[in-house]
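Section 5.1 Outputs to date
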Amino acid sequence: MKISRCAAKCNGYSHSIDRRQFLQAAAGVALAPALLSGCASNPQAVIGPRIRPCGPASKYMPVIHAAFVRRKEDYGILWPGDIYDGKAAYARYTADIEKTAKAIGAKVILRPEPIYSLAEADDWIAVARQAQTDGLFLVVLDRQKHAWPTAAKTADSGLPTVIFTPLG
């Protein structure tokens, strides 16, 4: 006698599909909308018209306080035998932050100097709170000493926070 694992306890006699066929069919059903949406003659009609911002908040420009955190001495993400080029990363990320802020219509107040200590982190967060900023953005250019405690303080500040750290 064959032991059935079927929830309906049908002993497998009433099913005309095996597990492999079921998985293939399920994958096909899951992929069908993505594949078929490319066949539409007017993709914009599928998505719909762009929603135009309106109302009093449509002209509001969010203000974000941003800062970098690192050590004052040779800095960067330490790897055996090398130091990550923090100066180049600082320049690149600064340009990216300014470009993105302009693209999304936000005002970014970038701290002119990186945060070098926990006391400076406290001061930066206090200034942002006092200015009633809409959010904080912290770029971790170092993983040593005060970098992660600064990230933790920023996250616990009570303000919406994004913490970015590069991976190598």
